[in-house]
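Entry type: protein chain
Record version: 2
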Amino acid sequence: MTRRPPDPLLHPTAASSPPPGSSGTEIAHPGAPGPTDAGQGTTTERVCFRLQVKQQHLAEYTRRHAAVWPDMLRALKDTGWHNYSLFLGEDGLLIGYLETEDLAAARAGMAATQVNARWQDEMAPFFEDLDFPPDQGFLRLSEVFHLEDQLTALSADEAGTDHPHTGENS
C-alpha cells in the first residue's frame, strides 16, 4: 500500500493536491456549513475523518482511549475540539467526529502543546500507512446529509414553493 500525504485541507502547509490515486472528492471543503450556535451567531464546523488501525493493535488502541491522559483531554477542550468522538470497527476502520469553530485554529492549538506531541508519538504505531502523525494523516470525509440543515430548509420551504428533488409543492 502507498502512504498518504497529509490532507491539504487539514494541513495548509501540505501539498495542495489530493493524495495520489484519489479524486479528492471524498475530502470536504474547509468552512463547510455547520450548525449555527444560536447564542453567539458563530458557525460550528462538523468534521468527520477516517484512519485505519492495525488489526493487531485494536484491543490496545481501545484500552488507551478508555483512559485518555487528563492533560490531553483538557488540551483538546481548550483548543476548540468539541463533541469529539471516535468509532472503531472490527476491521480497524476508525471514524472520528468533532465540532469546532475553526479546524485550522484547533489543530494549530493542539500542535503547540507538548501533550499532543507525546500522544501522537504514542499513537503513531497503531495506524496503517501513515508517514505523518495521526492527527496530520487522517482523511476528512464529506458531509452529504445533516438532518437539522434539511429540516431548516424544509421549514423555509413551507411557503409552498416546489420541492427541489420532487417538483412537488410542500
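Comment: DSSP finds six helices and six strands in the chain.
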